[in-house]
UniProtKB/TrEMBL annotation, chains A, B:
Pfam family, one: LacI
Signal peptide: none
Highest taxon of source: Bacteria
Protein species of origin: Streptomyces pathocidini
Gene3D superfamilies: 3.40.50.2300, lambda repressor-like DNA-binding domains
Record carries keyword Transcription: yes
Domain (HTH lacI-type): residue spans on this chain: 1-52
GO molecular function, one term: DNA binding
UniProt KW keywords: DNA-binding, Transcription, Transcription regulation
InterPro entries: HTH_LacI, LacI/GalR-like_sensor, Lambda_DNA-bd_dom_sf, Peripla_BP_I
Annotated protein name in UniProt: LacI family DNA-binding transcriptional regulator
Amino acid sequence: MARAAGVSQATVSLVLGEKWHGRVSEPTAEAVRAAAEQLGYRPNLAARSLRLGRTRTALLVVPALTSEFFARVYAGAARVAADNGFGVVLYPSPEGVGPAQDPFTSARAALDGVIASSMAADALAALQDGGLPLVMLDSDPADSAAAATVNPEVADGMRQIAGHLLSLGHRRLVHVAAAVDSWTFRERARSLAEAVRGVPGAVVHTEPTALEVEAARAAAERALSRPGPRPTALVCDDDLLAAGACKAARRLGLRVPEDVSVTGFDDLTLATALEPELTTVRLSAEQVGAGGMHALLTALEGRPPTSATIPVTLFPRASTAAPPPA
Amino acid sequence: MARAAGVSQATVSLVLGEKWHGRVSEPTAEAVRAAAEQLGYRPNLAARSLRLGRTRTALLVVPALTSEFFARVYAGAARVAADNGFGVVLYPSPEGVGPAQDPFTSARAALDGVIASSMAADALAALQDGGLPLVMLDSDPADSAAAATVNPEVADGMRQIAGHLLSLGHRRLVHVAAAVDSWTFRERARSLAEAVRGVPGAVVHTEPTALEVEAARAAAERALSRPGPRPTALVCDDDLLAAGACKAARRLGLRVPEDVSVTGFDDLTLATALEPELTTVRLSAEQVGAGGMHALLTALEGRPPTSATIPVTLFPRASTAAPPPA
DNA sequence: GTGAAAGCGCTAACAA
DNA sequence: TTGTTAGCGCTTTCAC
């Protein structure tokens, strides 16, 4: 303790907590700081948490951190948290081996709030009885018991993709759709269908697939091999799926984008690592994470949190072009 | 408190802490468990940590979580931690904006130990005075003050890559090297140079680059355009760099692998999303993370932690072939 | 087999 | 302007 070293008792608390102005003399304050510095003293967080009843820790529930997208969501949330003296702990990915753990078994009492992605559907049940402020990410703004929702504008993103493709002249589209039952993917499908519906002669066929390159390749190959006129554009729910779609095209001897156009979603590193570079929609995952943390902090301060919406941007690159003449 | 609800006082502690055998009667224990269940009672972690002086929390220091590799390291560490009632908190990526934070300013007193990657070099200084058990990942086994080191066998991986390429007949290699000053990359360079040295007529030129696709593309393009006989194989320190190398080759009108072979390192998702699929070495990042956590837990139990070594595997795929005849 | 009591390090209210 | 004190919820002796 700096108490023995310095001069006083809990004056230390005031000084180190920056609450001493007008209550502790400047010399004393300086002495305390010097002693703390010299002893390498750090306040004990457990004691502080116990006393305060708050832990300055938020739980982030994401389906799989190994995905670049959610790693970025974490990065954004952690940055905002750190700026506010908060920490972020992750709910162990359900992907992992071992028993699916109740996020609260080990953590509930040590949390101030929860930020959850809609994709981690199975974890939501456990959150119901939490009684903690909850901010949902990329989720249905309507139905949740959340204090706030922070969503990238996925519908707008899909609308932009569709607009881009339709104005290039594409009329036979395939939606290479993530077979994941979550609001964000339903929204994308809805938005795409709506955009296509407005254009005479345009159709969209849906080909569901698991969220993996190999599964997407198989799905896209299926879609491109169906009887009837070949689709000219593959609209994928994720850059990863788009990578699979490109592989499918090449395996069938088709060129991207000359014979078939392919679009992604997210703008991961992958999008520009591929050849041709993917036309895709950038969702700023960091902003989603940061927005979620902001909303949670607001809720924690007792103010009504503002549901936010993160704009998205279409990046037209080399994987899309006008459809072949035929 | 379950105290009021149940029947007794701190008997609760014994029962819930599984320390009651032979000290509390079976009926009482059952009653406590029932009450706890019914009230949804969870022990307060802050209080427990305060009392015990331990937090069951480890810090994982990684350069950038947005990279798939380190996300996997985290996943592995978190899995092992969870199995042992531990949590893992991440050191905010130095990449992020905002002031570079001392990991201990907010966390030191709340940590039991530290796991650090060598790539987070700048953070190491701050760790020196930690006084906490430290496990290093992918770092020089010799020089560190670490209790243990957990390393994937990168030298062996590079040896396998070199062997693969040399036996295909390649003699003019380029090492597209990550311009990051860390042990793991020095080790790769050393191992590659050594393997090539054993083969008469074989040479390796080093082309340093930042760890990004676009920078790697530029570096590879430079290497392939140098005067003199063109290199026939590009050995990259990372799959991401290999993606850049492939783009460089195509931009110069060269085919992969017919005109030039390309190899990666890590076997990220990217490796099989690209075309051709990358010949690469799989480093099990999860195992590195898990091994690191195991070593830390061992150290925390007072037993001497065992430095571990994680074997790597060469995956020969479509990005390598015999060099062109000329 | 169970309860009473102390104390982990901190903060906030109050006394001096 | 500073020190004293109580108590956050838990674990752990130690009496009973």
